[in-house]
């Protein structure tokens, strides 16, 4: 992915240490221009117009070093309003540039522009950016490469080269028409037609052999693959035929190296992977296939996507390159066997600081629901509309952004009463009655004091049916301290926590009919979106908002809004 950078400047940060010694470090300021517009693309012998940034799919890669700042001017030349989210970037004290539509900003209208200030702090490795308006992120997305801070290096052998790989989805139909039709009817949205690697479906998909993405490598060299899961609605298995891979980072933080034949990655997650080109020079397939764990028979894209690992040199290419052996589409054990190995690096240079004494506890059920339709007139189960909820509240997006309403104390936009536990306690993963099938609708937020140590437990439910949920919190990375199947138990479940080296992530997988526990310190004041990163679930209301109050000083309070903030129409 080529860079679309229009300028670079230097910033100097200086600190006085003991004995009057002045030390300065250089942090760069980068400038990018994103032009959002419709572009024609042809895949699977189908040509269609779709929304892109700078005419690219995937979009341009942003490259910075740890601690840098990027200003990204987004020009909307499309047909509809758009926002951009910087997934995995904490944006300290600056939720104005976080991006979710009508949560922290109103959309950039057609013909208008907005400059995002993207502030990098302790993130390192790979994160990504994507649209946060309706389903436009399917084609409006790209990688963010965060190199180590100047004067430092990787905690592993420096690779000979680095490559970005983006897992995505291709839809033959128009995305806005697909989600608008599903929203109106209440039926499940149409599934994708194919998965892609760097925008190409590859073998065995129709009309895709000649355009398959090819990753060239030299024998004996080591490559850092920066993998972004930009898929909309499915978890993915990923692997390379005849090659071991070693995962060294996830979600912008280093982990203990995991050498494996395959990985499982959820939508929203990123991974840094070392590949040693140590096999006989030839061609080898790189492949991605879906992992679908749901307690019902549903439609989903069951296809595979592939690219080719192509060694340089003189050899006869094989007629049929070897294909990786990836787990079966419903192989939960294979998914768990990978994810349970993920541990923070927890070194002196990259320590973990897990909160031990908890001030605020939040227990949140995650469920799939229905909205009643008179005379069974809708297209979902039982003639109703499909819905989803957190603590049995299905999120309703306001017409004015919540951040502005909170900052300006505007009444009637949201309620500060999201419950810290379910209002109705039941056997969450067992046989459930219909009294939890129909959620209430509302724009309810959770208020958290600045500096509080927070534990949040997500509890999956079998309401309607259980499913895997990748949960993403804006504005924070958090420690994934525990997970399990069945109902969370306040006495026994915490005894299984990993408080020594839990990974620090921004998106965590909640297993079907299971639970997951996270911890973080609420040290970033602002309005922050919390939602499932399966797009269909978020569209149905599986979201809420966390508001972290201002601290006691200006330096611990939300920054003032930028002068060019998009207005709400």
TrEMBL record:
Cofactor detail note: Binds 4 Cu cations per monomer.
Residues spanning the signal sequence: 1-23
Necessary cofactors: Cu cation
Main location group: secreted
Keyword field: Apoplast, Copper, Glycoprotein, Lignin degradation, Metal-binding, Oxidoreductase, Repeat, Secreted, Signal
Record CDD domains: CuRO_1_LCC_plant (cd13849), CuRO_2_LCC_plant (cd13875), CuRO_3_LCC_plant (cd13897)
Cell compartments where the protein resides: Secreted, Extracellular space, Apoplast
Gene3D superfamilies per UniProt: Cupredoxins - blue copper proteins
Assigned GO CC terms: apoplast
Main enzyme class: oxidoreductase
Plastocyanin-like domain: residues covered: 36-148, 163-314, 421-550
InterPro entries: Cu-oxidase-like_N, Cu-oxidase_2nd, Cu-oxidase_C, Cu-oxidase_fam, Cu_oxidase_CS, Cu_oxidase_Cu_BS, Cupredoxin, CuRO_1_LCC
One GO-annotated biological process of the protein: lignin catabolic process
EC number annotated for this UniProt entry: 1.10.3.2
Single GO term (MF): hydroquinone:oxygen oxidoreductase activity
Catalytic activity: 4 hydroquinone + O2 = 4 benzosemiquinone + 2 H2O
Pfam name, any one: Cu-oxidase_2
PANTHER family per UniProt: LACCASE (PTHR11709:SF410), MULTI-COPPER OXIDASE (PTHR11709)
Family: Belongs to the multicopper oxidase family.
Function, in words: Lignin degradation and detoxification of lignin-derived products.
Protein name: Laccase
Species this chain originates from: Juglans regia
């Amino acid at each position: 992915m080529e860079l679309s950078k229009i300028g670079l400047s230097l910033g100097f940060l200086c600190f006085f240490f003991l004995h009057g010694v002045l030390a300065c470090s250089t942090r760069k300021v980068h400038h990018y221009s994103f032009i959002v517009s419709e572009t024609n693309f042809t895949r699977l012998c189908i040509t269609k117009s779709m929304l892109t940034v700078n005419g690219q799919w995937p979009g341009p890669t942003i490259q910075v070093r740890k601690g840098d700042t990027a200003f990204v001017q987004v020009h909307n030349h499309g047909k509809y309003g758009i926002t951009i989210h910087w997934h995995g970037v904490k944006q300290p004290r600056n939720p104005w540039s976080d991006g979710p539509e009508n949560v922290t900003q109103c959309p950039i209208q057609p013909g208008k522009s907005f400059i995002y200030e993207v502030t990098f702090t302790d993130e390192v490795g790979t994160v990504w950016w994507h649209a946060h308006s309706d389903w436009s992120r399917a084609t409006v997305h790209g990688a963010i490469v965060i190199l180590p801070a100047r004067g430092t290096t990787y905690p592993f052998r420096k690779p000979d080269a680095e490559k970005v790989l983006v897992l995505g989805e291709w839809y033959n139909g128009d995305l806005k028409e697909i989600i608008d039709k599903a929203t109106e009817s209440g039926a499940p949205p149409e599934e994708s037609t194919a998965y892609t690697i760097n925008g190409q479906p590859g073998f065995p998909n129709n009309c895709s052999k000649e355009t398959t993405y090819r990753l060239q490598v030299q024998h004996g060299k080591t490559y850092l693959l920066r993998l972004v899961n930009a898929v909309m609605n499915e978890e993915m298995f990923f692997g390379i035929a005849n090659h071991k891979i070693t995962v060294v980072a996830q979600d912008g933080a280093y982990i203990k190296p995991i050498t494996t034949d395959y990985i499982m990655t959820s939508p929203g997650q990123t991974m840094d992977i070392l590949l040693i080109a140590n096999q006989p020079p030839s061609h080898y397939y790189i492949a991605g296939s879906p992992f679908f764990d749901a307690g019902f028979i549903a439609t989903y894209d069951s296809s595979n996507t592939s690219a080719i690992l192509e060694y340089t040199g003189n050899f006869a290419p094989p007629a049929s390159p070897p294909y990786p052996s990836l787990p079966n589409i419903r192989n939960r054990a294979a998914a768990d066997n990978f994810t349970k190995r993920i541990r923070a690096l927890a070194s002196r240079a990259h320590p973990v600081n897990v909160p031990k004494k908890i001030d605020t506890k939040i227990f949140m059920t995650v469920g799939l629901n229905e909205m009643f339709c008179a005379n069974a007139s809708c297209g979902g189960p039982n003639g109703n509309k499909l819905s989803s909820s957190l603590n049995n509240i299905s999120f309703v997006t306001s017409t004015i952004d919540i951040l502005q309403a909170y900052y300006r104390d505007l009444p009637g936009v949201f309620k500060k009463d999201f419950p810290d536990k379910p209002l109705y306690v039941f056997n969450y993963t067992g046989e459930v009655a219909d009294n939890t099938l129909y959620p209430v609708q509302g724009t309810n937020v959770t208020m958290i004091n600045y500096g509080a140590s927070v534990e949040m437990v997500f509890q999956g439910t079998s309401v309607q049916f259980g499913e895997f949920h990748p949960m993403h919190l804006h504005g924070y990375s958090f420690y994934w301290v525990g997970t399990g199947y069945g109902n969370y138990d306040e006495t026994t479940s915490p005894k299984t926590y990993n408080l020594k080296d839990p990974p620090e992530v921004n998106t965590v997988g909640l297993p079907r009919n299971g639970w997951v526990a996270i911890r973080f310190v609420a040290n970033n004041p602002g309005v922050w979106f919390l939602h499932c990163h399966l797009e269909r679930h978020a569209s149905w209301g599986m979201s809420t908002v966390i508001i972290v109050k201002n601290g006691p000083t200006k330096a611990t309070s939300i920054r003032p809004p930028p002068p060019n903030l998009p207005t709400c129409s």
